[in-house]
Design goal:
By secondary structure, this protein is α/β, with parallel strands linked by helices. Helices cover about 45% and strands about 15% of the residues. The protein has helices at about 5-15, 30-40, 45-55, 60-70, 80-95, 130-140, 160-165, 210-229; strands at about 75, 105-110, 115-120, 150-155, 170-175, 200-205. A six-stranded mixed beta sheet has the order 1-6-5-4-2-3. Bound molecules: zinc ion. Zinc ion binds near residues 127, 129, 156, 159 and 160.
């Protein structure tokens, strides 16, 4: 079997499983596509990725390709049903948050098991991600949460990125951007620094503006209430 045929099977099977349409493959970044495949299918060899890269771009510099792959830890945000289900858990939880609290939520998963589900609370350390990771650490009795994945409806801030790095979680998924304080993509790109982040992969945003709209509505309602008093 030649490489072309093998790659063709490789594309169809793995990418389809991830919810990526074969017809739209060209729009994806080759590095991101390879990293995403490597994360979900760790047994795929780096050699296969080099073949894949050459398949997409015949003139690619393979040495540069390899070094860039090893440095990046950001995965393509592919909204598979499994990921979608986690954000559904967050959406359902938002409805149960006391009205005065910010609808910012973090969900910690260990495989299929929910370890912690928390929202923002009072105090400057009371961010959802911190609440969630601290509770997860206590529940599991482990200093490091290396087999856990964290799902947030918003891009974490700098403080939360620090706690995420300390927790050594396997993966962060965030639903939407947080343009003012986000430290994953918006204001800083903390998790891209492979020297301080050797453990955590991340993917996001899966949605563009849907959660931001919810948050803006929350603040608008708060302002209206305070004017009405
Ligand atoms: Zn935060």
């Amino acid at each position: 079997m030649n490489n072309e045929v093998r790659l063709s099977n490789f594309f169809i099977e793995k990418t389809t499983n991830l919810g990526i349409e074969i017809e739209s493959l060209a729009k994806y970044d080759v590095y991101q596509l390879c990293l995403t495949l490597k994360y979900y299918y760790p047994t795929i060899s780096w050699r296969d990725f080099e073949l894949l890269a050459r398949h997409i771009d015949n003139n690619i510099d393979l040495a540069y390709f390899r070094s860039k792959l090893l440095q990046q830890r950001q995965l393509l945000p592919v909204l598979s049903p499994v990921i979608q289900n986690k954000f559904k858990i967050i959406d359902d939880y938002i409805l149960r948050i006391p009205e005065a609290d910010l609808p910012m939520v973090a969900l910690l998963m260990h495989g299929d098991e929910i370890i912690s589900l928390r929202h923002n609370t009072q105090g400057m350390l009371g961010h959802a991600e911190v609440n969630c990771l601290v509770e997860g650490q206590a529940k599991l009795g482990q200093k490091y949460l290396t087999n856990c994945e964290l799902f947030c409806n918003f891009e974490p801030c700098l403080m939360c990125c620090g706690v995420i790095l300390q927790s050594r979680i396997k993966m962060l998924h965030y639903a939407d951007r947080e343009y003012h304080t986000g430290a994953v993509a918006s204001q800083l790109q903390v998790l891209d620094n492979h020297k301080i982040n050797p453990h955590t992969w991340y993917a996001g945003p899966y949605f563009l503006g849907e959660y931001v709209n919810d948050l803006q509505r929350f603040f608008r309602e708060c302002r209206n209430k305070s004017h009405a008093v």
